[in-house]
Write a sequence for this structure.
């Protein structure tokens, strides 16, 4: 733990130095308004409105944060990070997402999200360490994860591993992309789950997912386009077991 804190402190000190050296670079301000309309449990359509605002700066040292408000509630801190370049990679600290594999639907595969963490990014190789209680106990390390991507022309293969320090459980994931289509799979709690998905430059996407007990549980499709600066999208998911159809429409303006 002592070595870890020395590493983080050194990275932050170097980041502050690099930030001072790059003071001529102006921060980038971003914002977005998103409205998601979908059918609720009362068989009526409702809308969720999300307002987002962010500031980020990219240089030898980098950092930023996002504030978010849903349906008129007060703005709260969503994600943040600060970091610096170290040789051919970067090291960063914050609530900054994760390094896990992804897919279009993500109904059945294990999703190993992270809260506050330290991430070392070396391009194709990434390592992350998640804090269990960032505010009160920095010695509480909840999980350690790693991922590695092998690119081959227009294709790529990624393998990821997540180890939970509390439960001592290991989750393994992988994804292979072949041009416009790909397949993702995870093994967690002695169960294999997968998803086959694809997307096209025209904005069309589709997927099917399941697990070792039920090979096809969900099928879905989506479409997204930009109309005069406004992003418009539609999604449809069908659950084969419950025979439930879940449609949604999304409008988003980014500036």
């Amino acid at each position: 733990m002592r070595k870890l804190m020395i590493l983080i402190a050194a990275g932050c000190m170097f980041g502050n130095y690099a930030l001072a050296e790059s003071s001529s670079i102006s921060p980038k301000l971003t914002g977005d308004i998103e409205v998601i309309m979908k059918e609720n449990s009362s068989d009526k359509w409702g809308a969720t409105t999300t307002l987002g605002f962010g500031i980020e700066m990219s240089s030898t040292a980098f950092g930023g944060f996002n504030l978010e408000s849903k349906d008129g509630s007060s703005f709260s801190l969503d994600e943040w990070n600060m970091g610096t370049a170290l040789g051919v990679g970067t090291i960063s600290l914050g609530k900054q997402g994760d390094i896990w594999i992804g897919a279009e639907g993500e109904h059945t595969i294990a999703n190993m999200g992270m809260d506050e963490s330290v991430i070392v990014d070396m391009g194709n190789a990434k390592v992350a360490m998640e804090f269990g209680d960032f505010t009160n106990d920095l010695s509480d390390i909840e999980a350690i994860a790693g991922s590695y991507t092998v690119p081959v022309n227009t294709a790529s293969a990624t393998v990821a591993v997540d180890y939970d320090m509390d439960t001592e459980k290991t989750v393994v994931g992988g994804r292979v992309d072949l041009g416009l289509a790909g397949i993702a799979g995870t093994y967690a709690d002695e169960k294999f789950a997968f998803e086959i998905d694809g997307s096209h430059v025209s904005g069309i996407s589709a997927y099917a997912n399941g697990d070792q007990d039920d090979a096809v549980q969900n099928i879905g499709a989506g479409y997204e386009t930009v109309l005069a600066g406004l992003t418009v999208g539609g999604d449809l998911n069908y659950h084969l077991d419950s025979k439930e159809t879940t449609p949604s429409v999304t409008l988003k303006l980014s500036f």
Notes: The chain has a mean pLDDT of 91. Residues 2-21 form the longest helix (20 residues). The radius of gyration is 20 Å. The chain has one helix and 16 strands.
